[in-house]
Amino acid sequence: MQNAKRDVIAAIATAPGRGGVGIVRISGANLSTFPFQISGINPIPRHAHFVKFLDDTGEIIDEGILLYFPGPHSFTGEDVIELQGHGGPIVLNMLLVRCLQLGARLAEPGEFTLRAYLNDKLDLAQAESVADLIDASSEQAVKSAMRSLTGEFSNQIEILVAGLIDLRMLVEATLDFPEEEIEFLQSAKAFDRLANICQQVSQVEQSAKQGSLLRDGISVVLIGQPNVGKSSLLNRLAGEEVAIVSAVAGTTRDTVRETIQINGVPIHIVDTAGLRDTEDEVELIGIQRTWRAIEQASLALLLVDAKHGVTSVEDTIIAKLPANLPLYTLHNKIDLECPEKLAGDIYVSAKLGTGIAELKSLLLSVAGWQTEMSSVFLARERHLNAIRLAKHHLECAIEVQANSLELLAEDLRLAQFALASISGGFSADDLLGEIFSRFCIGK
Ligand code: GDP
Ligand code: ZN
Fold first, then answer.
1. Which fold has domain 124-424?
2. With contact defined as beta carbons under 8 Å apart, do 236 and 125 qualify?
């Protein structure tokens, strides 16, 4: 994929369906004659031109704005043209077909961003944040994705990589002069610098963990009999944010999972209500899926009516849960009847909102969310793994210190490579394919 053919690609960049304006985007190495062919004018770069878009017979398809961004000053780094027409699916398709007639081919998902990456307009972490920004499910996630997109995350990583390169140069230089090596490294404060970098990597890890929570959230298994107040509790927890969640177009909702948000952290609720004995094949598939979700969950919440407490029905389900899954018992409807409180249990009234704030902080703290943390980057599992790997090698480096300079040099090298993979320094083609194929078309 590194040698991607720089042929002309085109796609409808706006969301499917009808809207006021719809955009067809075209990118290619040389599009200088393209605007004239589609509109009969030669545009001034980066100026908005009100034009008529014409088909091959000269008949008008639509009228709208044409923008021409000659490379390299464009999103992809190539020549880019935007046709802003009326936002109807048929008219946009006609515009797209016209582009194909003029030599473009349909862009693959994420191909515009891939070209931006290959032309050094964005690094890999920034390219990923483009998709994360589009997919963001809360305002906090948008802000964090934006911090990654503007390069704040990449810059921090770059600074660490630069520090590691300096250190490696020092250590590798001493390999050739074994007599003076230790004093040389000590006078250059090499080990202080190593400890310092390791500590900064830990900080970035914390921040990336938060970002990954914002992006992926946590799973909570909800156990509760009918009428104990599950729906009421979910609505209460979600508060006004639920409207935002359901407004996200294309949010996948299968029957066993419901997503609410607390402080912008997506909480995926896995409902065990459907976990009953059955012969029905469709239901069985659903039940299997529920169990798979349970295996990946962060905690289980057992919701009971405060009047009755835990009964044998709940006991049966609890017995089947993974032994290491933390379990909290939540007594609901304490406005009606409040039993003597057991330490470690939670007491709420979904109806009145009593105890809900405590429940929210419990969920967030189990998730590992630190409310005081500000500059969070919307990190992915891939980034976290790279940071963890780098940290591991740095810790090894600290351990061997001067005992073996060869090992020290090797650990520093591996740490540098791990960190650099975040911005794409040494990325394999299959990684790029994996990342960009998940984009939407036209981005
Ligand atoms: P689910 O079947 O577990 O989802 O339970 P629902 O959320 O549908 O609630 C069942 C009934 O209990 C409804 O009539 C709710 O209004 C009521 N309910 C839920 N939570 C409370 C509560 O905290 N206090 C009181 N008094 N009623 C509640
Ligand atoms: Zn319900």
1. Rossmann fold (3.40.50)
2. no
* Structure tokens that stand for 213 in this block: 């929570």
| ipTM for the complex shown | 0.96
Domain boundaries, the chain: 9-123, 124-424
pTM for this predicted structure: 0.70
Please answer whether residues 304 and 216 qualify as being in contact, where contact means their C-beta atoms are separated by less than 8 angstroms: no
- Residue in 383, 20, 402, 352 with CA at minimum distance from that of residue 180: 402
Highest mean pLDDT among 57-66, 210-219, 426-435: 57-66
**Structure tokens belonging to residue 249:** 């177009």
- pLDDT tens digit string along 48-61? 999 999 999 999 99
Q: What is the CATH number of domain 9-123?
A: 3.30.1360.120
Residue 302 C-alpha to ligand 2 middle, in angstroms?
A: 14
Query: For the segment 298-356, what is each residue's pLDDT rounded down to a tens digit?
Result: 899 999 999 988 888 888 888 888 988 999 999 999 999 888 888 889 999 999 999 99
Instruction: Report the run of H or E that residue 25 belongs to, with start and end.
Output: strand 19-28
Q: How far is the CA of 227 from the centre of ligand 2 (A)?
A: 7
- Residue 44 burial by Cβ neighbours in a 10 Å radius (0-12, 13-18, 19+): exposed
Please indicate whether residue 335, judged by its CB atom, sits closer than 6 Å to ligand 1. yes
Residues belonging to the binding site for Mg(2+) are: 231, 252
Ligand nearest to the CA of 304: 1
Binding site residues for K(+), as ranges?
A: 227, 246, 248, 251
Q: What is the DSSP letter of 267?
A: E
Mean pLDDT across the stretch 79-84?
97
Instruction: Judge if the beta carbon of residue 333 lies within 6 A of ligand 1.
Output: yes
Strand pairing category for 218-224 and 299-305: parallel
Q: In Å, what is the CA distance from 258 to each residue of 43, 282, 300, 417?
A: 50, 19, 14, 39
Distance 234 CA to ligand 1 centre (A): 11
Q: What single string gives the DSSP state of each residue in 177-216? A: -TTTHHHHHHHTTHHHHHHHHHHHHHHHHHHHHHHHHHHH
| pLDDT confidence bin for 2, thresholds 50/70/90 | very low
